[in-house]
Input
Amino acid sequence: MNWAAIRVIYVTEMARFFRTIAQSFISPVISTSLYFVVFGAAIGSRINEVEGVSYGAFIVPGLIMLSVMTQAITNASFGIYFPKFIGTIYELLSAPVNFLEIVLGFVGAAATKALFIGLVILGTAALFVDVQILHPVAMISFLVLTCLSFSLFGFIIGIWAQSFEQLQLIPLLVVTPLVFLGGSFYSISMLPPIWQSITLFNPVVYLISGFRWSFFGVADVPIALSLLAIAGFTALCLAAVWWIFRTGWRIRG
Amino acid sequence: MDNIVEIRDLRKTYAGGFEALKGVNLSIKKGEILALLGPNGAGKTTLISTICGITNPGSGSVLVGGHDVVTQYRDARRLIGLVPQEINLEPFSKVKDTVAFSRGLFGKPRNPALIERILRQLSLWEKRDARVVELSGGMKRRVLIAKALSHEPEVLFLDEPTAGVDVELRKDMWDIVAELKELGTTIILTTHYIEEAEAIADRIGVISSGQLLLVEEKAELMARLGQKRLQIDLQDKLSAVPDVLVEYNLELVEDGQALRYTYDTRGERTGITRLLGDLASAGITLTDIQTEQSSLEEIFVGLVKEGAA
Ligand SMILES: Nc1ncnc2c1ncn2[C@@H]1O[C@H](COP(=O)(O)OP(=O)(O)O)[C@@H](O)[C@H]1O
Ligand SMILES: [Mg+2]
Output
């Protein structure tokens, strides 16, 4: 293993993040506070409780997931797209590094940033509502796995993208709707039966449900299914990344 | 083992079906400066990219330090420093950071003292904390060289290091290359300037349309260059060169209507005066004389035409 290479990629990527640390910190704090003002105050006054949990607390896991997923994808896709765009990718291609080392560096950094933001949101939420965490180990595991798998997914998007528009296309057109419709702000059981069935095709449902279970012990789908979903998604992304580096798809002519 | 790079029958066809390398064979000696001379689109960058791992080779093999660049890429690449043709640098990183980054990427432990030495050698030390965007074009080019040298490579590839660079900077670049050679680095540089190949190379390879047309010691090429031909048109046809003129190695050309004398312009004496005297004594009447010189440019153009035909 070329550990030095992993270290410099990781450190360089994190440095970009720290250069804008204030911004990285403040924007999730503000947006989380806004969610609580809007959802907590406006909607929360109508919906008191969902499955025995106060509405304000109920939306916390979904809120964290929403940010973590979009942040992971944005950071990782930009992280690898940027060297392609400015041409510095030549250095990665001509260095004695393998795909695993490149991925560990870039995806590791993107996942770290996403995790940081997830924790900032959790902290901010705790200022507004009483957040209890029934299964802390499961909570952290879900959070970390989500950061990792969505960073991997973002990495793939960054390799695939050939323009800035394409870079933003998938997060905007696919991920954000899936997350919003994935039960971030409501329980699946609140939907009409037909929508409940349709919703089950949305993979994000399983992640949010599992994550919420680790907070409150209530879930839309069995927890085993949630674990399977996140493990499967991670495996799928890993396989795709492995294939990309083996064939040099879109990076090595 | 004297050859640090061995290229065998290397072919490369791009995705669109264009064959950019058509079976290149080349051995590069340890410690030499080899200039790959060729017009734009000849395949110079493709050749370097294939050696360095930026493009996948089609067929054939490349060994660097005895390691196959595909199957033993780690060992091979550790020996290689690459300065790309385009100035590909992250605009907002600091000079010393981006150089340290390259070193880490090649698996080497941090070594600030070495990086200081490289930056000083390239007159970049004063700019170590500057961001890349703040640098001039020539300095950016030197940052690329510093990055390539950061992991102490044995072979350095410089892809058109002086394209679009002014005369003074070009001289600087040549000095840098000469210094690196002194330190034992093998250097392969591509160029489409003949003077550049003449000025710094030990050997010159001429590449065109994906084929390596010739690789020769510069001295030999220059010797060929230094040769001039004198053509002597005769009034009366000769059937053979007269015996008294045998020492001049004359060629009978144009159906015996002319004699050709090849001589070295760099010699103390060209022998022309004596030849003309001997011709007169042999009773040969001249109608005209002309001289012509084959420049590297001519050799080059000739080769490129042959290659295209
Ligand atoms: N990625 C690519 N896809 C298709 N053709 C390419 C690609 N890169 C270079 N070529 C073609 O290959 C030939 C050689 O290019 P290159 O190696 O860049 O030449 P040089 O460096 O000698 O100017 C050119 O005709 C060029 O158009
Ligand atoms: Mg080129």
Chain B is about 35% helix and 30% strand.
